[in-house]
Structure formats: C-alpha cells, structure tokens
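Section 5.1 Outputs to date
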Amino acid sequence: MRIINRIISLLAAMAVAAGCIENDIPYPVVECLIESIEAEGLAGSAAIDYTSRRVVLPLLETTDIRNVGITDVTLTEGAEPSMELIGRHDLRNPLYVTLSLYQSYQWSIEASQSIERYFTVEGQVGATEWNVADRTAKVLVGFDDLTDVNITSLKLGPAGITHMSCTDVADFNDSNLYLLRDFTSPRRIDVTFHDRTETWYLTVEHTDLKVSFTRADGWARMAWFYGEGLSGTDLGFRYRTAGSDEWIVVPSSDVTIDGGSFSACVRGLEPQTAYEAVAYSDNDESAVVSFTTEPVLPLPNGGFEEWSQPGSIIYPYLSEQTAFWDTGNKGSATVNETVTESSTDIRPGSAGRYSAALTSKFANFMGVGKFAAGNIFVGTYAETVGTNGKVNFGRPFTSHPVALSGWLKFENGTIDRIGEQPHGMNLTSADYDEGSIYIALGTWSAAEYGGTAESPVQVYTKEKSTLFDKNGKDVLGYGELMLTEKVGEWMHFRIEIEWRDTHTAPTHLVIVCSSSRWGDYFTGSTKNRMWLDDLELEWE
C-alpha cells in the first residue's frame, strides 16, 4: 500500500510539474552581421565595425551621396533585414536597418565623402579659411589693391563634373580664372554638379600681418611647428633653447609648404626643456613662441624582472601598489592553470634574469573549461564572471612616444580550439593561430569605458562590443605587430606608433601582448607560446 501511495504521489507531482511547464527554452544566440557590402562609386573597401554595428562607405568625390547604389550585401546566414538594402539610397544621413534571426540587431550604414576644395591667390598670407557649412572661403593678402587679384587655383566641387559660373563675369569657368579679379566685395560663384547648384562666396581681405607662428607641439625629443606667411616668399622656422643667444634654422628640406601655410618637425630636442621659436617670411619674423618638451616616461618593469606569487597565482609585479602590468592568471587560476609566468630564457645581452613566457592553454577543470591565450597587458585583471573575464586596460601616461620596441620569440600551431568565430571570419583547424602585440595611447575615461580612473578601458569577454577598438574616437596613437610565423631565435622588434593627433596630450597608455590573437573569442592553438623581454618606449 505504501508503494502504491508513493506511485500516486509521484504521478501527482509529475502532473503538477507538467502544468507548470512553459515554452521558455531559450533560442540560440546568433549575432546578425553585415559581413560584406559593395556599392557603386567607392574610393576603397567598406569599413565594417562589428563592435558598434556600423558600416562606413568611403565615396569618391564624384559619387552622388544622395543616390548611392548598393550592389551587393552579404549577411549572416538566415538573417532577415528590415528593409531592402540592394538599390539606391540617400546617404547624407545614416541608413538604419535591423537584422533579425533569433534576436534582432540594429546596424547603421553611413557614407564618408571628402571633396577637395582650394582657393588661392598671388600674395596670399596664410591658409585659406573655409566654412563648408556656409559655403564661404576667405584668403588674406599683403597688398591693398583688391581690384586686381590674381587667382592661382580654384576648385569648389568634384573634379571633372563641376561647372562654375559668376553672374557678373561672362565666360568665367575653371579654365578662365583670370577673368575674376575684382574682390572689393565678396564674389558669388554658382557651383553645379549632379544637376544641383550650390552658391559659394569668395572673399579676399587685406592684412598687415606678414607671418605668424600658429602653434608649437612639443614632444619629448621632437616638436611640431606650424606657421602662416606670405606665399611665394622664403618661409621657415628658427628655434633655440630658452636663454640662448644662438638661433638654429630648420633646414628648408624639413619644411612643408602649402600656399601660405607651412610646418616642420624638429628632432634632437632635450626632454623637459624650455625652448623658443619664431616663424619667418623673407625678412619678416613672427612673435617669439615658447614651449616646453615633455618628459621621457619609463615603461615600468619593461624587462619583466619583477614577479611575485603570494599564493597560487603568479603576478608580474612585486605588490599591487607598484603594479603596472597584469595577466589573465587570476582567471585561469579558477581552473588551476597559469597562462603567463617568468622564464629564465632571456634575450642575448640582457642585463636581467627573466623574461615573460605566455602560453596558450585549454583550461579545463572537472569537465568545464575554455581556451585561454597567454597574455600580459598594461592594466589590471578585474574579475572572473562564470568562465569569462573582465580586465581593465591602461595606466596614466601623458607623453608622446614614437615606438614600442623589445625582444621576442614565438611558436605557433594550427587552431585546435574554436570557441567563437571572430567577426567576419571563418577559422578552421587548417588555419594557423597568430600572436599579437599592440600599443595605444588615448584619452579614455572610466565613465565612458567602464573601468577605473587608473585603468579606464574595461573589456568583458562575454560582451564582444567591449573589445578594444583601435579606431575608437579616443585613440590618439596606435601601432601593432601580428606574428604569423614561428620566431625560433630571439628577435628585436619595433612597433611604430601612428599618431592621429600631434597636439592633444594622451591620458593613458595601453599595451596588450597575446600568444593567441583571437583569445578573446576563446579560439586558438594550444601550441602557441610567446616570450617577451626588455620592452621599452622610443622617443625619436
């Protein structure tokens, strides 16, 4: 009887449970991507940013941005767009499209287009002042008679398809510029292309200023000079250490001249030193400009001599208070693995005892695990969430290095672990894994990027939208090295930093080294290993 009662109770429980069952089985997560896109009149390949789900089409200046023909689009298999993409679109504003499969993802398709414009005259002082929104251009000249101005160049629309006219100057066009000479008042120019007409106003004004020094950007051992003067004259710069009587002339071969504007890069300066400089146009000189060069900042523990192991985890520093670098060891320790450690295999001639050894592994504990790349980075490991890690990249840094150099060895193999596919790629076990090193300097803030004031750029491997974006708006300088083949002996490397802004001072430095390039996607080879030694920043 007790057995029967148990069976009845069990059946009742099953019936109650069945009554509570809902169809809440989750759908697989498949991110819908624009994998490729082609259009008429492009100046290059489309730029696809998978993190921000943004496509930018670079248009030739002759392409009609109001009527861009998209000819081919490749989407994630099965994804359905909310609108027809192939066809003609007005891309003066972004085109927004939602791609749907199991989930929905909004993408934007935008166009970038630059039209080269110029307006120069004889005797011009400085660069032409442009206001594209108001369609005005103004030049300054060093003479008083504005009734006899000689235009030396004029282009206000796309090359080859633009017609210019002036209502009160008959037969004026781009081959008869000499017909337009009187600039006692602004001159109206009608510019027609793509069957549309824009109205521009050209102004010429007199100035007593013959030459000006517009800006000096002092780096640690270099400086960038910018000036404006009278076109057609001898334009250049002189500089000296503050307090010195001797001026140094910048060689004319180092001066770049564009009409009445000119610039130069001066090398061989001393860090943290006050300098004075002037710009000149023939015998005229600007006011003296003062600037101070930046300090040469060290790369702490760049030789990887400082390690500690207070418990089971190995750290690339002696204490958290002095930490500059960190690794993913805290994350891999959850499955009893270490992906980065010190090594006594050092580069030839090193004064140190250790290098950093980065080893890619499949970290597995009791049947649960993921592929982990050996890594070392400037910043700090924040936390482990499940099998995903959060790291905060960056340390405070306010100078302008020109390169990252050091020594490395590298071993790689074919991919034997595929967790996720990097955006736009289809890696297989026939592909070789790669190693990577990159350096970035920028003006990131913790409020925007989720990290801390010390290390502002947070990357959470579960959220691919947080992965580091080398083209991000706050990146001032960037350089990278991708390793595709074995480097069996210690090799010296140098990564030049491409600076996109010579004037703005960075706030933070990021360096990331990985034995597996696609480690953020838990994809790579367990045969990959990288050794690093004696990293340093270069300043000239």
